[in-house]
C-alpha cells in the first residue's frame, strides 16, 4: 500500500475538540437515521460548511464541543488543520446530499448517507482515524501525473 498522505496547511487545531465534534456528528447522524429530520441535517450541513471554509469556530457543533471539552477538562492535543479541513469538505458534500435527499423525500437513500457519516465520524471520534487522509491519498493516485 502507498504511504498515507494528508493535506497540510500549517495551521494547528485541537484534535481533542475535533474528536468531540465527530462524536456529535455521530449522534446527529443517528438521530437523522431514526427521525429523517431535515432540520438536523441542515445543522450538520451548516457545521461542515463552516469548517470547510475555515470558519469552524462559529460552527454549532464546535461551540458545543468546546463547552464539553472545557467542562470535562479534556487535554488539548494540537495537529495540522489540513486533513481535518479536507474531511470537513467531504462532510459538506455528504451532509448536503443528506439534506437535499430528505427535503425531496428520499428517506431510505438519506438514511444510507447518514450511515456513511456515522462510519466516518465514528472512526475519527472513537479511534482517531481520519478517513479524509485515506481518501485524499486514493484521489491523488487517480490524478494523471
Automatic annotation (TrEMBL):
InterPro entries: DUF4395 (IPR025508), UCP030042 (IPR016942). Residues 13-140 form the DUF4395 domain. Keywords: Membrane, Transmembrane, Transmembrane helix. The chain crosses the membrane at residues 20-46, 58-74, 86-106, 112-136. This is DUF4395 domain-containing protein.
